[in-house]
From TrEMBL:
ABC transporter domain: residues covered: 24-254
Pfam families hit by this protein: ABC_tran
Natural source organism: Ornithinicoccus hortensis
PROSITE patterns: ABC_TRANSPORTER_1, ABC_TRANSPORTER_2
Molecular function in Gene Ontology: ATP binding; ATP hydrolysis activity
Keywords of the record: ATP-binding, Nucleotide-binding
Keyword Nucleotide-binding: yes
Keyword hit for Magnesium: no
Protein name: ABC-2 type transport system ATP-binding protein
Domain of life: Bacteria
Spans annotated as Disordered: 1-21
Length: 331
């Protein structure tokens, strides 16, 4: 850390960035480690109440990006602006707006949940009744009020993660940064973490969320940046990303009876773009499969096909990632 000056630190006169109203503006961010370019020109923005996902496989550059966003390490090039202020390792003010929840747990196992929060709250300069009130609010937010008096070493992995998130929330940041918060937690805790993020976002908090789980990005994120090899390959809402790569919905009907007549009948239906038939199966390319499927099933039955199975498949971010990078998201 701090082995060289950041671009931001080298320019003490400029403390404010572009005033766009966005909570976070990242422009042209680059960072090398020796010969390796870990982050290679990353740009994105996050507005109030918006959850932005950085979705990419291990080693894509997510942690390095958020380490620069949080001012933990300097950027070689580019700027990070938080609530209108330029971020850098030596800048204190913009850090007050950020709550960083690192991948690794940063809690004291011997202390209870309440004691951990109280300790970290004091470190952040919160005292007295304010601290007590805020700790109670945060315990509620992370769903640990009932377990507040238990030593955190007895918690499940997911509860420890939630406590870790709580620590990042104590000072009421306007931007919460979560680095793969559900890795290694059980499904129930995972769901509870996702619900906490949804609740915070609903209250207007901007969230930067890194993950290599496409289901999480699809569920939580208003916009998603697909990151690979240190570069954002594409950005948009889930629907925009899927459209960008020409993804189409498919419905597969299996059965017996007059399959050929069913194929003919379905070819004339409004949302059906293509029908391929063999003796027992129809493969349809359709727009908005979930809303079209009822009419399609009725149409096929009316034409004399007796259905034994109906299967809908929709393109997901996994297929978008594959399309953009030629690689699978998961290894
Ligand atoms: N301090 C460091 N020194 C040398 N190389 C590093 C350092 N930190 C990260 N890297 C390398 O930079 C690249 C990007 O790593 P980064 O941790 O940002 O990826 P990531 O997308 O967060 O993946 P992961 O989920 O595995 O953390 C990787 O090739 C990694 O090995």
């Amino acid at each position: 850390m701090g082995e060289h000056m950041s671009v931001q630190d080298a320019q003490p006169a400029a403390t404010s960035g572009p005033d766009t109203g966005d909570v976070l503006v990242v422009e042209g961010l680059r960072r090398r480690f020796g010969d390796l370019v870990a982050v290679d020109g990353v740009d994105f923005r996050i507005g109030h109440g918006e959850t932005y996902g950085l979705l990419g496989p291990n080693g894509a550059g997510k942690t390095t990006t958020i380490s620069m966003v949080a001012g933990l390490i300097p950027a070689d090039e580019g700027t990070v602006t938080v609530a209108g202020q330029l971020m850098g390792p030596r800048r204190v003010d913009p850090k007050r707006h950020i709550g960083l929840v690192p991948q690794d747990l940063a809690i004291y196992p011997e202390l209870t949940a309440r004691e951990n929060l109280t300790f970290f709250g004091k470190l952040q300069g919160i005292t007295g009744a304010d601290l007590k009130g805020r700790v109670a609010e945060v315990l509620e937010l992370i769903g640990l009020t009932d377990r507040a008096k238990e030593a955190s070493k007895n918690f499940s992995g997911g509860m420890k993660r939630r406590l870790n998130i709580g620590i990042g929330l104590l000072h009421q940041p306007s931007l919460l940064i979560l680095d793969e918060p559900t890795v290694g937690v059980d499904p129930q805790s995972r769901n509870s973490i996702l619900e906490s993020v949804e609740a915070l976002s609903g209250e207007g908090m901007a969230v930067l969320y890194t993950t290599h789980y496409m289901e999480e990005a699809e569920r939580l994120c208003d916009r998603i940046g697909i990151i690979d090899s240190g570069t954002i390959q594409a950005e948009g809402t889930r629907e925009e990303l899927i459209r960008l790569t020409g993804g189409v919905d498919q419905i597969r009907l299996s059965g017996s009876g007059d399959v050929a007549a069913a194929a003919e009948a379905l070819r004339g239906m409004p949302k059906v773009e293509q029908v391929d038939a063999d003796r027992h199966t129809l493969r349809l390319t359709v727009r908005e499969a979930p809303t079209a499927v009822a009419d399609i099933v009725t149409g096929a039955s009316a034409a004399g096909m007796s259905l034994s199975d109906v299967e809908i498949s929709r393109p997901n971010l996994e297929s978008v990632f594959l399309h953009l990078t030629g690689k699978a998201l998961r290894d």
